[in-house]
Give the backbone structure.
Amino acid sequence: MKLLPSLARAGLFAALLLGTATLAQSADAPVTLKVGKFADVLKYVEANRGKVVVIDFWADYCVPCKKEFPNLVRLHRQRAADGLVCVSVSVDDPEDKDKALAFLTKQGAGFFNILLDEKYEVWQDHYTVAAVPMVVVYGKDGKLARTFSYDDPKNQFEYADVEKFIGTLLPKK
């Protein structure tokens, strides 16, 4: 009989964990911004193996980044239930964290948001790109599937291009 209260507590704990996971995927999830390293982003991708992960690299000073960012939020709201995980990576100076968080909050970015506290070269060299805006997509296998950047002036991207590509990796709606 003493086992029943323990099982009840374990069930309650599991329900709380599941509720938290569901909240993280909902449109009403709280907006937070972690200051961290690029390695944290890669760990997050690995932790979400089995899902498609979209990472949007942006900065407050980047007009095209801020113009396209609402599309990431919309994508999250529309496709999270289908196995899409959205991540935003701010490359702003850590001193500008409050400004970045205010932008994310205004956008309703209730998913994993991180502001990198290290040199640009770390992520630029990893993806072989020069600057933001940039969106990368990882497949369910955890491998980089596609990089969208403005590096080639003749090959600019829009979120419609990102969405079309993601559509090839997720179940049809």
User: Anything to note?
Assistant: Residues 3-25 form the longest helix (23 residues).
